[in-house]
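Record minuted for completeness.

…
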Amino acid sequence: MRMLHTSDWHLGRSFHRVSLLTAQRAFLDHLVETVRTRQIEAVLVAGDIYDRAVPPLAAVELFDQALHRLADLGVPTVMISGNHDSARRLGVGSGLIRQAGIHLHTDPDACGTPVLLHDAEGPVALYGLPYLEPAMVRDRLGAARAGHAEVLGAAMDRVRADLATRPGTRSVVLAHAFVTGGAASDSERDITVGGVASVPAAVFDGVDYAALGHLHGCQTLTERVRYSGSPLAYSFSEAAHRKSMWIVDLGPQGEVHAERVDCPVPRPLARIRGPLEQLLDDPGLEGHRDSWVEATLTDSARPHEPMARLAERFPHIVSLVFDPDEGPARTLASYAQRLRGRSDQEIAEDFVEHVRSGRAADADERAELRSALDEVRLDDTLHEVAR
């Protein structure tokens, strides 16, 4: 069976206040054309279809058009909700949509209920595991504790139990999670809970292919466990990413052969760094005139109107960062710059150490901070669901 694995569309997202709707439409055109010309037999979308729980109308319309186009091709499509999606909103009408061959999996209780497809080699069971917020689904799944590894493990136990009743059936799982060994970027929303966000790849043992979503870089964790990554770059930390989808051929004995298919690039990303005058004069930067640019200025003193001057040479500059190379001006680095790449837990622990003149939080205090952060995250999640 030939499958197309994609994820993290984030419909409705912008890039530094630049609308990406046209680029997202071009990607979906490319996806539909790939399905049509490459004889795809099933489309897998591993979560974060929208960028937020209540997406803008234009994003909803774009998603609706994509569903109609896929249904018109007669190719079954399996989708799961991600941590950016509102599972309840995305799942509205899923029973009716299923009749058109579009299978939306948003209910954790249905983790062990597959979509059954058939090809010349026999049946294939596709299990959709929506993003599982540990504190919200622990009891429903019977997990030992409210952790990512435990709830995903409990969901996979249901998958394996169902699969055991289907001898000779090949299997595919869609999941939205941070799996150990994956490389993160700046544009994924933090899903840390209980101090640990990642789950081991071994949780997917027993299935032929795990189609993952959440991390925005395309990556292979094992031959059978892969991230497709996002189809577009959503932060400058993804400047070096090759945006693509996986075409996965599942053989008669569950053998996996995967091929990357590149996605359209609306505009390349460029990170440039140096004193303002150097960035304005360096002939080696001429190739970035049509790129979205992030410029980091290393001048010891803040130059006059740097954004306007840079925009004359780089019309698509969207981000300006000040990071002086040396001297007192280094303290001018922005608060966001100093916190970049640090988790909420690390920031809170740093604050405790700062206000106590260098005495770091002990184990009990770190546990209290972790518990408080988890409660805030759960409250935010419940608020989004209520909305």
